[in-house]
Write a structure and sequence with these properties.
- Among the domains are: about 80 residues; about 120 residues, Alpha Horseshoe (Serine Threonine Protein Phosphatase 5, Tetratricopeptide repeat), CATH 1.25.40.
- About 60% of the residues lie in helices and about 0% in strands.
- Helix 5 packs across helix 7, helix 7 packs antiparallel against helix 8 and helix 14 runs antiparallel to helix 15.
- By secondary structure, the chain is mainly alpha-helical.
- The two termini are about 75 Å apart.
- The longest helix is centred in the middle third of the chain and has 28 residues.
- The chain is elongated and about 100 Å long.
- It has 21 helices and no strands.
- The N terminus is likely disordered.
Length: about 475
């Protein structure tokens, strides 16, 4: 709640002091000097101790002050709500827009809409004038308000600015008239954009969309409306190809006009997604195509052995590395096409769950001594999840099959994560393969004596 907004609302309240709640301190011209100290010449009453001196009076045009702190937003809303006939009372653009912003920023969009509409009504003639003069100007360049010497300040009322623009048009200065009218509409565009947001918050997206369009008719690159319209089209008209195209073009226009905006990263993402949905023929088709694409990419994971020169360079791979052997002695040998497919696979919760399930199946097969089947299962998982659990299982599987490179692969697993190898022993034991678990722990103790002492492997072997 800014001071200027508080004073504006206070000035409005001062117009009919009899409507204030009983016991409310007087506002505006009804205020009396404080009894705590006599009023000095030219002052509006005694200020609180330590308050800066106003000198010989408040600035010209400043609302009268009582020396009290401005009311809080909650206090203002309570006062406004108690006023009879406030909604119907004639207001300037500035008063109506201030009231709308007060209600809007305090979570009351429905009431804000009413005041925003009243404010817009005051600027309707200027808006229509601008559109007519802009059409008349054609493709001619529009100067800025400063270049056109409109003479406006931040305090110039919207209606006065509109009158200045009209005077320019009477003198035949079309470009100057357009420039001054456009400057007059700047606060109006803010109000219209906020009304669109308020409509959206009031669960009225269709009307919100219309207001965003209304803003863009005057200012095609207006940030809030440009982003808001595109986002709303993307969210609510996903099956309308024309709407998706408009959304995509709007996001691109937003990025071109406002590259440093805090919303630029989101606009860039939504632009890409709206374009993909557009090319797919609608949101539902796009979602379906993404699911199908994931399925196809997963099906292209060619896990059959390839030439050693085509091996994937992963955690258990490398030129001459322990998992780089050919045939079925090591980790899956992958083609370049397969590697690319793996890199593109989307790591969805469903995929992660499937990988975990496959690892569990491989461990079940290991516990039953079905090493060939276990190896096939581990090969499906290794390219996508080469963690310690999978390394340990792959190594123990190859040992069970008596492969020539088994000991080298075992060394990689033990050297990187001995705890994972140890845990595999616990898994085998839990699944009924006590003999296999003890054999694994015996080999682990011989391969990593320091870990064996730390983890008390001997106690497990004596059980």
């Amino acid at each position: 709640m800014t001071l200027s907004l508080a004073l504006t609302a206070a000035a409005l309240l001062a117009a009919e002091p009899t409507n204030l709640p009983a016991g409310h301190p007087p506002l505006g011209s009804e205020a009396q000097p404080s009894a705590a100290a006599p009023a000095s010449p030219g002052s509006m009453g005694a200020m609180p101790e330590g308050h800066p001196n106003f000198g010989e009076g408040t600035p010209e045009g400043h609302p009268p002050t009582t020396g009290r702190a401005p009311p809080t937003a909650e206090e203002l809303l309570q006062q406004l709500d108690s006023m009879q006939g406030l909604r119907e009372r004639e207001k300037t653009f500035e008063i109506a827009s201030s009231l709308g912003k007060l209600y809007y920023t305090n979570g009351r969009p429905g009431e804000a809409i009413l005041y925003f509409l009243q404010a817009e009504e005051k600027a309707m003639a200027t808006r229509e004038f601008f559109l007519a003069q802009r059409k008349k100007l054609g493709k001619g360049a529009v100067p800025s308000a400063a270049d056109a010497n409109c003479g406006f300040t931040e305090q110039t009322p919207v209606e006065s600015m509109g009158a200045t623009a009209a005077e320019r048009a009477k003198k035949g200065d079309t470009a100057g008239a357009v420039a001054c009218a456009r400057a007059a509409l700047e606060p109006v565009l803010e109000v219209e954009s906020m009304r669109a947001n308020a409509l959206l918050l009031s669960n009225n997206p269709e009307d919100a969309l219309g207001v965003y369009e209304r803003v863009l008719t005057v200012a095609p690159s207006y940030a809030d409306a440009l982003f808001g319209r595109s986002a709303l089209l993307y969210e609510t008209r996903g099956e309308d190809v024309k709407a998706l195209r408009t959304a995509h073009e709007g996001f691109e226009a937003f990025l071109a006009a406002h590259p440093d905006s805090a919303r630029a990263p989101l606009a860039r993402k939504l632009s890409r997604m709206s374009d993909e949905a557009l090319k797919a023929g609608g949101m539902k088709k796009w979602v379906a195509s993404r699911a199908e694409d994931r399925r196809i990419r997963a099906s292209k994971l060619d896990l059959t052995p390839k030439q050693p020169t085509m091996m994937a360079q992963g955690p258990m791979a490398g030129a001459g590395g322990p998992m780089a052997g050919g045939g079925d002695t090591g980790a899956p040998a992958l083609s370049q096409e397969t590697i690319q497919a793996m890199q593109n696979v989307e790591r969805t919760p469903e995929l992660e769950a499937q990988l975990t399930k496959t690892v569990e199946q491989a461990e079940e097969l290991l516990a039953k001594g079905r090493f060939d089947e276990a190896l096939a299962a581990y090969r499906q998982v290794m390219p996508l999840r080469p963690d310690g659990r999978v390394k340990a299982g792959m190594a123990w599987t190859l040992i069970g099959l008596g492969k020539p490179t088994a000991d080298r692969i075992w060394s990689v697993a033990v050297g990187s994560e001995p705890a994972a190898v140890d845990q595999l022993g616990e898994t085998l034991k839990a699944k009924g393969d006590v003999k296999g678990a003890k054999a694994l722990w015996t080999k682990l103790a011989a391969s990593a004596p320091d870990y064996a002492a730390q983890a008390s492997l001997q106690a497990k072997l004596n059980q």
